[in-house]
Amino acid sequence: MLVDLFSSWTSGLHVGVQIALFVVGLALGTFCLVKFCDWFVDASSVIATKLKVSPLIIGLTIVAMGTSLPELAVSVADSVTAIGGGQANMAIANVMGSNICNILIVLGFSVVFTPIAVKRSVNRREMPILLGVTAITVIFVCLFGLNGVTGLHDLAITRWEGIVLAVLIFAYIAYLVLMAKYHPDQLEDAEEQSPVDMPWWKAIVLVIVGGLGIILGGQFVVFGAKGLAMQGATALHLDHDMSELLVGATVVAVGTSLPELVTSTVAAKKGQNELALGNVIGSNIFNSLFVLGISAIVNPLQADEWVFVDAFIMLAVTVLLFAFSARGKLKRSHGFVLLGCYVVYFVYLVLRTVLGWSF
Predict the structure, then answer these.
(1) Residues of the chain with pLDDT under 50
(2) Fewer CB within 10 Å, N side or C side of the chain?
(3) Is 14 left (phi over 0), alpha (psi -120 to 50) or beta?
(4) Half-sphere exposure of 326 (CA within 13 A, CB side)
């Protein structure tokens, strides 16, 4: 693993040099995630467009899965590094933090720019699915993974839970395909929705190159973020696990949510409201099912007991979105409320880490 190689290489360097390398690694990784993800999403959207796929389906699958690749790269990289011991705090915090960021920041900014009309079909199908998936994730985090001897919560997501989540994402994709097949009234002229056009061979090459670049970016992000968390925790005499949760839920979560932010904001400004909303809904579903599922299959995910609180915050934010969308339109006022909620959430994370609140 590149993360282990980078960490061992920097271990003997001066602290100041280490911090500089961690910052460079985090910045370079974030750049790679955003840039290569942009290539991946554009190329994937072109392929889907040529196959005459509905814009809503593109947003819920191709774009959502593509913009979830940064979270997948970071979470799997963190999960692999935890195989030799330790906790995969970054994997859990990144997914939950990204889901919260997607709703509060990504959708918040999108709605502030352009109010989004929510179709009844979205409120009847996609929103309940998102709420159900989020609830399942919270149940898995809170009710399973208990140690039969001590009775303590050892695992946030066990391997069998990861398998269940991974199976559910394939069931979700199959459901979307069937919906597109048996409800042709939802299909639109997708040719006008693609932001770019390119030949087949170029699209396929960019999908491959983009995927590899996203994996590399994830390695750099984990290296930089974990390094900064450890250095900061040591300097300020803070708990290392709590520091990892803070960095994972804020810096890394926002960084890996940049593709969603760019995609949804641009889509909203262009009047492609279905794509903007579908991207956030689909991305959160993929994060909970695909990212957490694959990461837990690679290595069961452990986390601090504060993961319970973060899980319920994620559920509460999803319920808030469901309540807003039920009115048929996400207004600018809703966007400001969502952004305000993130400010409160961020302050809470900082305070609990710095003050060392116990669970």
Answers:
(1) 147-152, 187-194
(2) C
(3) beta
(4) 8
Compute the distance between CA of residue 228 and CA of residue 84 in angstroms, rounded to an integer.
Answer: 20
Position 7 scores a pLDDT of 60
Examine residue 144 and state whether it is found in any structural domain, yes or no: yes
What does the block give as tokens for 331? 């207004």
Count the domains in the chain.
Answer: 1
Distance CA(330)–CA(323), nearest Å, equals: 10
Q: Structure tokens of 286? A: 């993929």
What token pair was written down for 342? 């993130």
Give 108-129 pLDDT, tens digit per residue.
988 888 888 888 888 888 899 9
Per-residue pLDDT tens for 205-262? Answer: 887 888 788 777 777 877 787 777 777 777 767 676 677 677 777 777 777 776 677 6
Establish if 62 belongs to a structural domain. Answer: yes
Cβ neighbours for 20, distance < 8 A, ≥ 6 positions apart: none
Rounded to two decimals, the pTM is 0.77
CATH of the domain at 116: 1.20.1420.30
Q: What pLDDT shows up at residue 55?
A: 57
**What is the spatial distance between Cα 105 and Cα 111, in angstroms, rounded to a whole number?**
10
Q: What string of DSSP letters covers 84-146?
A: TSS--HHHHHHHHHHHHHIIIIIHHHHHHHS-EE--HHIIIIIHHHHHHHHHHHHHHHHHS-B
Domain span including residue 299: 2-354
- DSSP at 245: H
